[in-house]
Amino acid sequence: MAIVQKTRLSGYIEKINAGKTVNYDAFAKLLEDAGYSDRARRSLFRVELIGANRYQVEILDQAAFSDLQSRFGQQQLTDRASAAVAGNSHRMGVSGACLLLRRKSIPHPQVVLFEGQQWTSPVKPAERALLVENLENFLALEQTLAVLPECGWSVTEPIDLLYAAGNQITHSILQPFLSRYSELSCLFDPDPGGIHMFRTLCRSMQQLPVRFLYPNDIEARLTASNRLLKAKEREALVDYSGLSPDVDRLIALIRLTNRTLEQETYL
Fold it and tell me: In angstroms, rounded to a whole number, what is the distance separating the alpha carbons of residues 63 and 114?
């Protein structure tokens, strides 16, 4: 790949990482030249047109995006500290992570700290965990737990409610901790982004049962939603078929109603 193309690609990557809008069509062409297929690009990014040649690009797979940064960054940086010295710490992932944990008997959030391959938790993990995508659902502990019977899960034992910002719950650094549970249940947004996170977890946590939860009346909820399914999102749903019978049913209902939901509407 020519140096000029690499420089342009790096510029787009930095803008996306900073949350700025870009000309995604031009960026996608550079990615294609770099060997990234259309399917690979759809698994990496969710794209929304907000103006003439202006797209808001959401990162769906942080690990793959970090690899993209390392391949096409302007400087070879070894960690976030050295990136800060170079004037752009956002070009490198942090050296650890934090996960928030609550359960009914421990309502005040506990912080699980990850550093390298090590993790430290102030409490012993419960037998099962519920992963939520949005902070509002994590904060509304009682209401979120009350939704579970509507999702086919009558909770009779303590469970841990877990939250990590955005899609960080799928980060590989969290896997040793998540492996301590006997089962992971995901209360994610019933949309392509939530299903993508679920697929990432299924692939990385193959030793555990992982299930995608949604209320029994999901069809009625989708029908009443004003969150329309975008054409590109509809196309992307094809890639997620076969993950599980529950997800296949959800995909069919999303396509039937042509709508998606945010999990905050469960509260």
Answer: 16
Mark out the alpha helices in 73-189 (DSSP H runs): 80-85, 135-139, 141-147, 175-178
Helix (H, G, I), strand (E, B) or coil at 20: coil
Q: Give dist(CA 138, CA 264) in Å, integer.
A: 10
Q: Which residues of the chain have pLDDT under 70?
A: 1-4, 73-95
In whole angstroms, give the CA distance from residue 220 to residue 158. 30
C-alpha–C-alpha distance, residues 23 and 56, integer Å: 9
Same domain, 148 and 57: no
Q: Domain containing 18: what range?
A: 3-91
Helix (H) or strand (E) holding 252: helix 245-257
Same domain, 198 and 85: no
Coil vs helix vs strand at 75: coil
CA-to-CA dists, residue 32 to 71, 202, 235, angstroms: 14, 27, 19
Q: What is the pLDDT of residue 2?
A: 62
pTM: 0.68
Q: Which residues contact 71 (CB under 8 A, 6 or more apart)?
A: 34
Mark whether 134 and 210 lie in a shared domain.
yes
Number of domains observed in the structure of the chain: 2
Same domain? 245 vs 122: yes
